[in-house]
Amino acid sequence: AAFEKFVQERRDVLQSKGIRRVTFLLPQQAFLPKFFTFRASADFYEDTIYRHLEPALAFQLELKRLSSYDIQLISTPFHHMHFYFGQAKVKRKRVISTAIP
Description:
Layout: H1 2-9, H2 11-16, E1 21-28, E2 31-39, E3 45-46, H3 55-61, E4 69-74, E5 83-88
Antiparallel strand pairs: 1-2, 2-3, 4-5
């Protein structure tokens, strides 16, 4: 909440300077650091899908592709693996096709 308040108080300045992302790194003794990212595309509110992910890693994981789902990060002791629980925001019927070569 403190990070969000800090960014929101400076939102107009950030936008006027063309800043697209603000990330706070919170070091943890004996643990991996925690990241909190606030994006201009979300009006400088935190998009929790990126919480605790290094910004470059979040881009590589292509998590934006899951934007039609409410997803939650599932904690795991394996910091190289990321597990998510996802639930569709809107119930939709889908047709899935496969081909056998």
